[in-house]
Amino acid sequence: MAVEERTIESGGFVPAVPMDLTRDLLKQCVHCGLCLDYCPTYRALGVEMDSPRGRIFQVKGVYEGRISPDDPHFRKHIYQCLDCRACETACPAGVQYGKIVEAARGVAEPDTEAERRIGRVVLNRIFTSRLALDALGLGLRAYQKTGLQSVVRATGLLGLLPERLANMEGMLAPTQGGIAKAAMPEVVRARGRRRYRVGFIAGCVMPQFLGETNQASVRVLARNGCEVYTPRDQGCCGALHVHTGERDTARALARRNIDVFEPLELDAVIINAAGCGSTLKEYGHLFENDPAWHDRAVAFSEKVKDINEWLAETGLDTDGLGVVRARVTYQDPCHLVHGQGIRNQPRQLLKAIPGLDFVELKDSDVCCGSAGIYNLTHPELSGQILDWKMPEVAKTGAQILVAPNPGCAMQIAYGARKHGIDLEVVHVVDLLDRAYRAGEQQSGARRSGGMPPPSRTGAHRGPGESPEKGALSGTDDTQVGSGGQSVRDGR
After folding, report:
1. Which of 373, 404, 400 is nearest to 487 (CA)?
2. Percent of the chain clearing pLDDT 70 (strictly above)
3. Which has the least CB within 10 A, 10, 50, 302, 478?
């Protein structure tokens, strides 16, 4: 049933369904179709309505009143999108597809009960409460670190769970650290001369699963002349809520973060998660129709920098980097390369590490299938897209894959376990931190005239051995070591 179109006397246009976008934004698309080959869902399904062009056509229909936002076909196609934004990179007209699809989800509920349940329960109740999120994180870390996960998997108890829940458990990546959440000081002073005063967004998923990567991020920033502020009162950035249409919740979370960081008078606000960074940089769009908050949101977003972008822009301290011997490849997170246009900076940082053998991954800027919570709501399509990715990863022969986004890191670690690939998945800052520590150890060994003990890390470790944190080889260089996710863990 179509929604009635309404116009105003001045000749302007009032959308039949109020949405957080303008008609000009929709009209940017000229339906040339150059985006089709870059769209993973179109490649997988071959359906026009599951392409960027087809989805924009449907959103325009809702905007103009020809299609109801409750139409089940519309809801299916709009939520079947990964929101990877590869089409934005391919588009010669500069269509801002991400803003279009996210605005559409703001007026259309997910078409499946599983998606609605995740949105209402997980995102709106757990991710908005620090206490609930900490409780969930503690439970998951305890499940893994006490050995319970290994028992559950070894005894076949997973077979008693519904198939969807069993699949979700299989995707759980090894969490970093111990049962307790990694500590984050509110203020860390710069090492040496202070060049910048920056804030650090700790995030919601990162502290629970990848707390050591957060710690490494702060250490690397401090090593590069930054005084780092990580306010305890900050919260989730709202990225997952924006992606799933929960825009009011996202705005509430954004207001909280703006309120927390605004008084600190920072040179930049640093984020190490690509999906979060994309949303943080678009707070202005989220408050487009809110005069009380729009200017504040824009001012906040203008300070947001991805950590790769910031380190490359301000100049990485390369003097203290030690040798790290490992073959490394790189997966471009969609919301970093397509959403923020950050492609070369992470590679520049990796190539600055002495001893690193960097090899490009074919189709590195093609989505891995994680896409926020897409691997939970659309496991079949997500799995198909992941299965395209993993053979290319294997061909690189890499010991380490770098993916500077938690969703991508966990998805590819799961894919490596599934495909039997011996792979460690880390963030760029994990390797930089490792290299700085290696540099300090190597410098100390040279000053003392001694030689560090042989390493049992990297390619030399056996099938049942874990890498040793910060270990050095007999040739005075670090091999595959701490941080990141080893796919052996949790098998």
Report:
1. 400
2. 88
3. 10
